[in-house]
């Protein structure tokens, strides 16, 4: 039987997943869960968003470089 806390966490992630989808943010459930966990531990949400954007840009740049090399 799920505890009230587990139910609340699941509902929160469900809502965040819906928002991510509506905003086309591209964050899956696992990533959203990790982001929430980091924020709960004191990570600055704006700094976290910046890191995610930077990592996506690096991934995109690497993919472009690989496609040019082939």
TrEMBL record:
Subcellular location: Cytoplasm, Cytoskeleton, Microtubule organizing center
GO biological process per UniProt: gamma-tubulin complex localization; microtubule nucleation by interphase microtubule organizing center; mitotic spindle assembly
Keywords on record: Cytoplasm, Cytoskeleton
One Pfam family recorded for the sequence: MOZART1
Superkingdom of the source species: Eukaryota
Cellular-component GO terms for this entry: gamma-tubulin ring complex; interphase microtubule organizing center; mitotic spindle pole body; spindle
Family named by the database record: Belongs to the MOZART1 family.
Function of the protein: Required for gamma-tubulin complex recruitment to the microtubule organizing center (MTOC).
Entries under PANTHER family matching the protein: MITOTIC-SPINDLE ORGANIZING PROTEIN 1 (PTHR28520)
Protein name: Mitotic-spindle organizing protein 1
